[in-house]
Amino acid sequence: MKSQLLEHIRAELRTRLERLSKAAYEAHAAATDPGSKAEGKYDTRSLEASYLASGQARQVDELAESVRIFEALSLPDFGIDEEIDAGALVGAALNGETTFFLLVPAAGGMVISHDGREITLLTPESALYRKLLGMRAGESLELPALTVIEVS
Q: To the nearest whole number, what is the mean pLDDT of the chain?
């Protein structure tokens, strides 16, 4: 299942990168278009367009890095009694519902629908990622109130 999940994440990242690259290109074109030149001292269209283009270019770079990381990534399998570590798919009871988390090095916060499950990607920057490390099935956290159900 993890190899299919990983391929699904790769495809989603590539799709997002393609969409964002196109938007960044269009924002850059708008920022450099002679028609967006200021018509007065209070006209900030070109400045706003250049800020947008700059921000989108940064996002494209970050997303391209995530694609590169996931292209080289493999996810280990975990036994039911093993401690949670990087690459683990964690099923947890949170607020009365089963929630799934995948501990990965990039693309934190992204939610993937796979095999009828919504899986949230967590990175080491996430406090929850750090709290889950070393836990095992059956163990609980107080904040957030969460119980690990399964680790794979």
A: 91
